[in-house]
Write a structure and sequence with these properties.
By secondary structure, this protein is an all-alpha fold. The protein is 72% helix and 0% strand.
């Protein structure tokens, strides 16, 4: 089976409507992690969407903002519903951006591993301290759920950072789509 046939088969696996809320939230969090680590903004997302042929789904800043506002975690969410095609497009765009940012992602994960092994504070590495601060500040600014403790928010940021390493690898879009489906299925069962 060639790669395009495998991709078609993979993306044929569609979530049920109940799973879409969790997928919307996860996609927004992953984009937030990429933004926090690499300083990416909406222009980078729109440029990637354009180059990947998704301009019709993400044509301008307002459209992208509305797409991201579909996350149930967002303040003022609910202005637009995310459909399957938009979710799949975001998966491909996220993987593409993660591949472009693979070096800083790898560097941050390597620092995380080294400091964790030595049981040293993560803020000793500038890349991790800057990432954790940016993630926390952006999360608190944009997200409705403020119940997270600082430690829980840090753990979320670190999990997303490690996840980005997998999504930056070849076939990252496949890995991300499968992870989204699996996480949303597990959440639906609980």
């Amino acid at each position: 089976m060639d790669a395009s046939a495998a991709d078609s088969k993979l993306f044929a696996q569609s979530p049920v409507p109940e799973q879409l809320d969790d997928i919307k939230a996860q996609l927004d969090l992953i984009l937030l992690a990429l933004e926090a680590l690499a300083g990416l903004g909406s222009e980078a997302v729109l440029d990637a969407a354009q180059s990947l042929g998704f301009a019709a789904l993400m044509s301008d800043r307002v459209g992208l903002w509305r797409l991201r506002q579909s996350s149930p975690l967002r303040k003022g969410q609910g202005r637009k519903k995310l459909d399957i095609d938009e979710a799949r497009a975001l998966v491909v765009v996220i993987a593409h951006l993660a591949q472009q940012q693979q070096q800083p992602i790898r560097q941050a994960v390597a620092k995380l591993e080294a400091l964790t092994a030595k049981k040293q504070p993560l803020y000793q590495a500038a890349i991790l301290g800057d990432y954790l601060d940016a993630f926390s500040n952006t999360y608190q600014e944009r997200m409705e759920d403020q119940a997270f403790s600082n430690q829980a928010l840090e753990q979320l940021a670190l999990r997303l950072l490690v996840d980005l390493l997998f999504y930056s690898a070849p076939n990252g879009d496949r890995r991300l789509w499968l992870a989204l489906l699996e996480r949303s299925r597990r959440k639906a069962l609980t």
